[in-house]
Amino acid sequence: AAIALPSFERLILTNAADKYRDDLYSFLVLARSEALARGTSVTVCASTDTNTCSGDASDWGTGWLVFEDRDSDSTLDTTEEILSVYQNLTGRSATLTFNGGDDI
Fold first, then answer.
1. Fewer Cβ atoms within 10 Å of its own Cβ: the N or the C terminal residue of the chain?
2. pLDDT tens digits, 58-84
3. 67 and 76 in contact (C-beta within 8 Å)?
4. Which residues lie closer than 8 Å to 22 by C-beta, 6 or more apart?
5. 24 in helix, strand or coil?
6. Residue 28: which of 56, 74, 65 has the closest Cα?
7. Is the pLDDT of residue 104 over 60?
8. For the chain, first and last CA: distance in Å?
9. Which residues contact 82 (CB under 8 A, 6 or more apart)?
10. What is the pTM assigned to this prediction?
11. Torsion from C-alpha of 39, 30, 58, 70, nearest 10 degrees
C-alpha cells in the first residue's frame, strides 16, 4: 500500500491538470466560435470572482471569463456581455499560468 499510494496520488494530480487544460481549451474554442458568429471580438480573461477580469493576467488557477469585447480593448466593460464563466470549484489548490502568446 505504501508503494501504490504515491502513484495513485500522482495519477489524481495528472488527471486534474488534464481537466484544467481541457476546460481552458474548450473555452478558447467557444470564444473563437462566438467571435465568428457575432462578427466582433471575444476575449477570455483570468477571473477570481466570476464578474470581472483579475488584475493578475498570468494567474488562471481560480477561473476565467469569456466576454463579448465590443470595443476590442481586452477589458470587460459594464455594457459588454459575459458569455461564459469558469470557476475552480474543486476546493483544491490549482496553479494555471499563461506565459503570453498571440491572440486567437
1. N
2. 777 788 899 999 999 988 999 999 999
3. yes
4. none
5. helix
6. 65
7. no
8. 46
9. 51, 65, 66, 67, 76
10. 0.74
11. 20
Inter-residue contact 69 to 81 (CB < 8 Å):
no
What H or E segment, with its residue span, contains residue 84? strand 82-87
The predicted structure's pLDDT at residue 103:
44
Place of cell 459588454: 80
Location of C-alpha cell 459575459: 82
Positive or negative CA dihedral for 5, 15, 59, 81?
A: negative
pLDDT at site 69: 95
